């Protein structure tokens, strides 16, 4: 069973904190936002994360202070997220025990890359790209496998390729022609009618385990996953 890695987010901008949380959870992490800015160390000890995202400008005490406090009890990687872009701030952050620094505004994909690099350096984890599809429903992009919790949902090779394409383009729409091209190199002969049957069968499998509609239709265009 793969361990779900926990990331603690120390960011007083609730909108940004929520956006980061949602993004990380879609990639299979457990993300917890700190709300008690008077006692971040106390939250850290309760949450026990594998990595901390730390803003510098915080109420009460700044991120440097809390980084020093965490370093007294833990070697967990700490990644600063800050609007301060002066080299002196970056040097200060690393000197206080931080592992990396990313300037606001940033692309979430860059944040993910930095997180995975820090996790690999610290724990030698081979980070697997598990994407959250729905509550308890995940797609592993390495093995092209769908899991409900830790139970694998049995899919054919063609169904796996359909899922891969839908996740890759999410939340965009994938046309039927695009899916036909994806399936061209599989062992199964695919006609227009066969594709309809495949989509219907895949939908049923996912709905049976999750209880919700996962693959949706954009009439006259194609299919998508929200």
Automatic annotation (TrEMBL):
Domain OmpR/PhoB-type, first and last residues per copy: 128-226
4-aspartylphosphate modification, residue list: 55
Keywords, comma-separated and alphabetical: DNA-binding, Phosphoprotein, Transcription, Transcription regulation
DNA bind region: 128-226
Record-level GO cellular component terms: cytosol; protein-DNA complex
Superkingdom, taxonomy of origin: Bacteria
Xref: Pfam families: Response_reg, Trans_reg_C
GO BP term, example: regulation of DNA-templated transcription
MF GO annotations: phosphorelay response regulator activity; transcription cis-regulatory region binding
Domain Response regulatory: 6-119
Protein function: May play the central regulatory role in sporulation. It may be an element of the effector pathway responsible for the activation of sporulation genes in response to nutritional stress. Spo0A may act in concert with spo0H (a sigma factor) to control the expression of some genes that are critical to the sporulation process.
Name of the featured protein: Stage 0 sporulation protein A homolog
Species, as recorded: Anaerostipes butyraticus
């Amino acid at each position: 069973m793969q361990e779900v890695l926990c990331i603690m987010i120390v960011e007083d901008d609730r909108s940004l904190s929520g956006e980061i949380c949602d993004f990380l959870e879609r990639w299979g992490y457990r993300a917890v936002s700190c709300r008690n800015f008077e006692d971040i160390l106390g939250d850290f000890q309760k949450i026990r994360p594998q990595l901390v995202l730390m803003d510098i400008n915080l109420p009460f005490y700044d991120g440097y202070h809390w980084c020093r406090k965490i370093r007294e009890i833990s070697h967990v990687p700490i990644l600063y997220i800050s609007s301060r872009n002066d080299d002196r701030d970056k040097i200060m952050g690393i000197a206080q025990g931080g592992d990396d620094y990313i300037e606001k505004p940033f692309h979430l994909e860059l944040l993910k890359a930095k997180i995975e690099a820090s996790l690999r350096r610290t724990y030698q984890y081979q980070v697997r790209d598990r994407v959250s599809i729905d509550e308890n429903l995940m797609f592993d992009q390495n093995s092209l496998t769908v899991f409900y919790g830790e139970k694998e949902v049995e899919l054919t090779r063609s169904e796996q390729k359909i899922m891969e394409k839908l996740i890759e383009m999410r939340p965009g729409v994938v046309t039927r022609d695009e899916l036909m091209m994806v399936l061209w190199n599989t062992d199964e002969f695919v006609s227009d009618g066969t594709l309809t049957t495949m989509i219907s069968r895949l939908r049923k499998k996912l709905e049976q385990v999750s209880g919700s509609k996962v693959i949706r239709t954009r009439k006259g265009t194609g299919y998508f996953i929200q």
